[in-house]
Please model this.
Amino acid sequence: MAWDGAATVVTGLGLVTPVGADEHTFWAGLCAGAGVARRCEDLAGLPVDFACRADVPDLDEAVGGRAVWRMARFVKMALVAARRAVADAGLRPGGWDGGRVGVVLGVGVGGVSVLVDNVRRLDADGPLAVSPLLVPMMMPNAAAGEVAIDLRAHGPSLAPATACASGATAISVARDLLTSGRCDVVVAGGAESVLTPLVVSAFAGMGALSVRTGDPAAASRPFAADRDGFVLGEGAAVLVLERAGDVRARGGRARAVVAGAGAATDAHHPTAPDPGGRGARRAVEAALGEAGWAARDVDHVNAHGTSTPLNDAMESELIARLLPHRPSVTAPKGVIGHTLAAGGAIEAAATVLTLEHGVVPPIANLDAPPPESGLDCVTKAPRRQDVERALSHSFGFGGHNVVLAFERARTPC
Model:
């Protein structure tokens, strides 16, 4: 099918993840289906001493320029991902009308490592040792601001913070900016880097993290009966969104269609999901409604799948109840861990790649889901599947639920 010219389409992807800092390496890593968590030297001695770190040894070089010294790690990753996404879309920042270009980058925490470092300086050497760059480096909107500067994007620059749903929220907001006519191009996604002893200790203290210290790579195991918590990760993903008619006019390509988006709030608990999944269900139903799909039209679900007992139980029941025709299910967090605010954007990119390649990556560390789950989880090896329509789930602390509906771009816009 050819889409209406007003349809929102994905034209570019850019990624920095624990399994690869480019699209092809990322996709190969997901399809390999092996967890990449490992012990981290700077976490030694903690109850949980492992994580999924995005090793990009040339990150500063990739950012380049004199401004690199003023950027926290999450900002650098967002900037690299954004540049790659724009290049992938075939766009040139020097050649566009910057006033019609928006930037929406979800971030949950911001530059916490910069904050911790400056607290130490304050305690050790007094107030004059605190960097004057502390505030601009740690603020969550720093990524959106620096990307806008770099791309000369003068449209709306926003930084939604909906915890682990932030990256998906950013894509939903970007779609609204396009459908409302306020922008012609929106660079949208999420970034997060909080692998510090402080944050890891906090998550461990609340019982959210896996404690499989003897085998870190097997610790993240979405939907497995013996799951015991998530594994922290870091990364960034950026999608370039445009209207189909504009892409057609410039001779560009559509990689996927953002057919719908839904959001709803549990209003239940600061961290635990509503066990009945009422907010998540409303988000799924809203995404289906915007897309004009019936539940049976969904071929595939990229699940939030955190590997925590509560989330996976709620999500299993939700999928089985709403989608009884048993679409295929995957969960990238088994491989890359939980990248928090970046997760929704990374998983949206994975959903786009599933639509393009006709392949569903397996869930790492899952031999088979519990029979009572009722899910058709892809396990052990990638599955060839002709996926036309897919949902990407993102659920965050605070009860934030965001669901994105993607459709395969089978023909030119």
About this structure: Residues 225 and 370 are 6 Å apart (CA to CA). The radius of gyration is 20 Å.
